[in-house]
Design a protein that fits this description.
Number of helices of chain A: 17
Helix content of chain A: 40-55%
Distance between the termini of chain B: 47 Å
CATH class of chain B: Alpha Beta
Oligomer: heterodimer
Largest sheet of chain B: 4 strands, mixed
Number of strands of chain A: 8
Number of helices of chain B: 3
Structural class of chain A: mainly alpha
Radius of gyration of chain B: 17 Å
CATH superfamily of chain B: NADH:ubiquinone oxidoreductase Nqo5 subunit
Strand content of chain B: 15-25%
Order of helices and strands of chain A: HEEEHHHHHEEHHHHHHHEEEHHHH
């Protein structure tokens, strides 16, 4: 186990040397922004100014769920932003302490409800590390395929809702939104064919997968990806060649790389800020060490850069799936029999952390085993949601922007509230 | 070695042994560091390139009488902190600090802005306090909530009134 980690790290190092000169930030990356002050005392801020308090959310459609931001406005400009989370808090971590390891997968499906596959994979990777379970090669390939398909579906949903956030700027209101959902359906159809469920799959388990690739699935995948691939080009043109879109996103909501790292922001937001970092390449898991990944980066760090990175990632994911779909190795899809898992769970001690690159960034799980006499449940489980870290940037970024820009910035972060609150 | 699932981090182990007097580095969990030097360790790791704030995990442990599992231990918290270097291999530096009930751990907010919400969440759910945190409020639960839900003495069926 350790040896394999070592070699993949070396491979990643070689790849990185080729792509950048070892510097943390890409050349031309955005300069550090002037950060807003989250602890600003509004009573001491300019007594002449007549500040207005505006509650954005929790039911505002642009908050993508239930999220509330209290804005202090000086005229049209935001002076201070105070976000409030927790409206969707369901106590998933407490619930997991009462369930057996194998019962947890369907519960965490509902965390990031736009990419449930990622939740399942992240949590099972941590359990596999804790219990010392090996995943067969075929299962690792299937997981990679599912992860990339899920990334396409998730980014498509984001693209559609982001176009809604921008209002009627993009071809009349909900046009792009509906088109993106139409393409997303193709991917949900593929998942339904594989697992029997369209949304909450419960297809991953400790040591592998529960559903094997059915007959005819490969052809359907190729067909669906062909359709999506051709239409993504249209959407990119619609977004990048529309002058209203460019005016509303260029230079808006700039996040610099240093702030991203400090806040723990990962994924497309970090890559759009000029940091060449992707866990799929730098700390490979699943079967990513067997494929060359072209990490998509931008240096401007604004809403337009995030859009470009995500659209390119759709294309990159399509390429990965098309290259891997024909090379899925034969073999078992699950390395462990359920009875064996139960026996191992009883003695699982120690602590484990495993993370993967979800469409929103590093989705990790910290799990503490119960030890010899604590039964078959984890003693403590902590999910590290990328959306929580992303929405923590609002107090730093929003000050200085107008309210209409705040909607665009919040949309461009792609926060999923089920994951923020858990 | 750090936790299971994380690659061995020799840089961290060397730093802990040389400068922080840690002799016992367990094989399946992060090393335990003196809580008084928690902030100092984070500061040194940041200067070594561990600039991404990954997470903080607080765990509540009930008092254990002396027995098969080990000597008698009082009720306490354990706070694990994770930092990451965004280079090849993306190594993670993880360590734990033991915090007694009623005690507090130094907050990392001056070093990492991201520690703000993470520490608030752990305070909210587990109850461990962070000293020097500029704004230690609840993050997930309502402001008037009683107790900390992820503590081990908080029953999962504790009655609650619907919120507001």
């Amino acid at each position: 186990m350790e040896a394999s980690v070592e070699t993949s790290a070396k491979k990643a190092a070689k790849k990185l040397e080729k792509t950048s000169a070892g510097s943390l930030f890409l050349p031309g990356a955005v300069a550090p922004i002037e950060r807003g002050d989250p602890y600003l005392d509004v009573d001491e801020y300019d007594p002449e100014a007549d500040l207005m308090v505006l509650n954005l959310g929790p039911q505002h459609p642009s908050t993508h769920g239930v999220f509330r931001v209290k804005l202090y406005l000086d005229g049209e400009l935001i002076v201070k932003a105070v976000p409030y989370a927790g409206y969707l808090h369901r106590g998933v971590e407490k619930l997991c302490e009462k369930l057996a390891f194998t019962q947890i997968t369907p519960i965490v499906d509902k965390n990031d409800y736009v990419s449930p596959m990622m939740n399942e994979q992240a949590i099972n990777m941590a359990f596999e590390a804790l219990l010392g379970a090996e995943v067969p090669r075929r299962a690792r390939y299937i997981r990679t395929l599912l992860a990339e398909l899920q990334r396409v579906a998730s980014h498509l949903l984001w693209l559609g809702t982001f176009a809604l956030d921008l209002g009627g700027a993009l071809g009349g209101g909900s046009t792009l939104f509906l088109h993106c959902f139409r393409e997303r359906e193709l991917i949900l159809d593929l998942f339904e064919m594989l697992t029997g469920c369209r949304f909450h799959y419960n297809t991953h388990t400790i040591g592998g997968n529960r559903h094997d690739i059915p007959e005819g699935w490969t052809a359907r995948v190729n067909q669906a990806l062909g359709v999506i691939g051709s239409r993504v080009d249209e959407y990119e043109e619609l977004m990048t060649k529309n002058s209203i879109f460019v005016k509303r996103t260029r230079g808006v909501g700039v996040l610099d790389g240093e702030l991203c790292l400090e806040l723990g922001i990962t994924g497309p937001l970090l890559r759009a800020a000029g940091v060449d970092y992707d866990m799929r390449r730098d700390a490979p898991y699943h079967a990513y060490d067997e494929i060359e990944l072209r990490v998509q980066t931008e240096t401007a760090g604004d809403c337009q850069a995030r859009t470009l990175v995500r659209v390119r990632e759709i294309r990159e994911s399509i390429r990965i799936v098309s290259e891997m779909i024909d090379g899925v190795p034969e073999g078992p899809i699950c390395g462990y029999k359920p009875i064996k898992i139960v026996l191992q769970e009883r003695s699982a001690g120690g602590q484990a952390y495993a993370a993967l690159e979800s469409p929103r960034g590093e989705l990790g799980t910290w799990v503490i085993g119960g030890g010899a006499n604590k039964g078959t449940s984890p003693y403590r489980l902590k999910i590290r949601p990328p959306s929580l870290h992303a929405s923590a940037c609002l107090p730093y970024v929003l000050p200085g922007h107008t309210v209409s820009d705040a909607i665009v910035i919040l949309g461009s972060l792609d926060p999923i509230m089920g994951e923020v609150d858990r | 070695m750090g936790a299971k699932g994380l690659a061995k981090n020799e840089e961290l182990d060397k730093l802990l042994q040389d400068s922080f007097g840690v002799t016992d580095i367990p094989a399946d969990a992060p090393a335990i560091v003196d809580p008084a030097r928690h902030y100092e360790l984070a500061e040194q790791l940041k200067s070594l390139g561990y600039r991404m704030y990954v997470s903080v995990v607080a765990t509540h442990y009930l008092a254990q009488p002396a027995g098969k599992t080990g000597p008698e231990t009082p009720e306490h918290y354990e706070v694990a902190t994770l930092l990451r270097k965004t280079g090849p291999g993306a190594p993670v530096a993880a360590w734990r600090c033991k915090v007694e009930i009623g005690g507090a751990l130094a907050s990392l907010v001056p070093l990492f802005a991201g520690a703000d919400w993470q520490e608030r969440e752990q305070y909210d759910l587990v109850g461990v306090r962070f000293e020097g945190h500029p704004d230690l409020r609840r993050l997930m639960m309502p402001e008037d909530w009683e107790g900390h839900p992820l503590r081990k003495d908080y029953a999962i069926d504790t009655a609650c009134t619907p919120w507001r």
